[in-house]
Design a protein that fits this description.
- By secondary structure, the chain is mostly helical.
- It has one domain.
- The chain is about 55% helix and about 10% strand.
- The protein is built from 7 helices and 2 strands.
- Helix 3 runs antiparallel to helix 6.
- The mean pLDDT is about 80.
Length: about 150
């Protein structure tokens, strides 16, 4: 922390006035990063370049085009022994299909989205991601792999 203060880096783990924000950020870190990469520290320039290329070329298209997402439709309080909230979700849909179903979508960006969606194969992306992760320890000179 002292090094960050000396170099003018502001440390903030959450948004102002949102003291419970960190748990939501960490939850997303687990679903996208920790589950695949693990908990080891990757901080050299070579490791950073490898992670950036993995995220940009493989994980971003795979998660944004082919992983279905459920949208929260409503909440209802249920009275039993204790109080509990029952959440209802819509049908799981991939983000591109969800965007295309909305009439307010930006018509200038739709052709690029459709071309990305049709040009990529989820099976090919998944196999490539698995190959990259299998070779991660050797490629990045990590002593302990996830």
């Amino acid at each position: 922390m002292a090094w960050c203060q000396e170099n003018g880096i502001a440390l903030s783990r959450s948004r102002p006035e949102h003291k419970n924000d960190n748990c939501h950020v960490e939850q997303k870190n687990w679903t996208l990063v920790r589950r695949l990469i693990g908990y080891q520290r990757l901080d050299t320039p070579t490791q950073l370049a490898w992670l950036n290329s993995l995220y940009i070329e493989l994980l971003r298209p795979y998660n944004n085009c082919f992983q279905p997402v459920m949208k929260l439709v409503g909440k209802q309080m249920v009275q039993m022994v204790g109080s509990r909230t029952r959440k209802t979700y819509d049908r799981p849909t991939t983000p591109p299909r969800r965007v295309l179903a909305v009439p307010q979508a930006d018509s200038t960006k739709i052709p690029a989205l459709v071309s990305l969606y049709t040009a990529t194969s989820p099976l090919t992306l998944k196999r490539t991601i698995d190959r990259w992760l299998a070779a991660m320890a050797a490629a990045l000179e990590i002593t302990q792999s996830a």
